[in-house]
Amino acid sequence: MAPVIYPTTNLTATEQMCIDHAQGIYVYDTDGKEYIEGLAGLWCTSLGYGNTELIEAITEQLTKLSFSHTFGGKTHAPIQELAEKLKTMVPIEDAYFFFGNSGSDANDTHYKMLRYYFNAIGKPEKRKIITRERGYHGVTVAAGSLTSLPANLAHFDAPVEALHILRSDAPHYYTGRKGNETEAQFVDRIIDNLEQQILAEDPDTIAAMIMEPITGASGVIVPPEGYYEKLQAVLRKYGILVWADEVITGFGRTGADFGCTTMGIKPDLMTFAKQLSSAYFPISASVIPGWMYKEMVAPSNEVGVFGHGYTYSGHPAACAAALKTLEIYERDNLFGHAAEVGDYMQAQLREIFTDHPLVGEVRGKGLIAALELVSNKTTGATVPGGKGGALAVKACQDEGLILRAVAGNALAFCPPLVITKAEVDEMLKRAKSAVDSTYEALKAEGLIDG
Length: 450
Fold this sequence. Notes:
The chain has helices at residues 40-43, 52-64, 77-87, 103-120, 141-146, 150-153, 173-176, 183-201, 227-237, 259-263, 290-303, 316-331, 334-353, 387-398, 421-444, and strands at residues 19-23, 26-29, 34-37, 96-100, 128-132, 165-168, 206-211, 241-245, 269-272, 284-288, 359-365, 368-376, 381-382, 401-402, 404-406, 410-413. It is α/β, with parallel strands linked by helices. 49% of the residues are buried.
């Protein structure tokens, strides 16, 4: 075993697969076995693998200017061009962009800029952040504390209380409903819970609420109709900013430019990473409105510097990668392609799996989806210990398909945006065989109830 501390891995079960090379939607291990990469790496390789146009753009930039930092008044053309391009795309008026390296650091940056802004306008008490149960926003200290998944909090002693982080209900009707509650009743109940929480905490102490338009690592939760409309009404009522974490849903994943567009969210803040560069070079962006940026200028002048930034903020090759990625999205109408193929994938998933005895719910939008694996289809009881998800992932690999189990027993799909309908058919054929064999294995172990 190599002396590597592997991320998000059981440290007793490392190095189970070694990826050697990749092309299009396929990756190949060191034994030469082919797999469909059904999760686009980690929700990120939107253009698939081996895109020579993108590789050439990165290589050209590395040859011209391999590195330049952006501290102390220095800049370069790629960072300026990328910010101007994104400004024409985002639904935030007079947007400004801080560039980093990952979704985690981008959310940490937002956390710090919110503190900076409210201090600047004389409201230092307005510092609490609302997140949601089952939310995922990264793993750095602030972002990790905003994350609500048990595995990401256990043993780390995340300073949740010190960072003034509050948690509200997850908008997942399937697992969160009570009795015979309808979706509308469920939404009204959890929105009322949120409003009561805000009042108990004092609205004047709450800065923002962070949300993934559609969640990723927590199980691809698509909130019910009406949820975001009512959620935003409550937040606007009490002067709480709407912070959209678009790290997974941004740039075509949901069949639109942004998850906010798909779900009807009007954000004040946005976070980007992953598909911004199709993962060919690490880059992230924290987006704030112009009115927020303008209040930050004078305090930076008082100190002599805006004291936040990374060595690789706006790395020229990363910016070049993002610019070329955005160009390809627009030129090849990949958001429209994702909408069309995404509708097809969603329809096929429901046709194949809705009546499957191991599947309690099929959910998703565009080219992101999940199957909720259950031990009892009638009651929705989960498979103990996440064993359904674990067995399904292994069965998928045996079939030549890489998927990921999230939130225990949710089997997630998130293929590259460039996938075709024929490739979707092949992906789902392999997934069906894997889910079938998983069901039989769980039944043999006595883990299927009914």
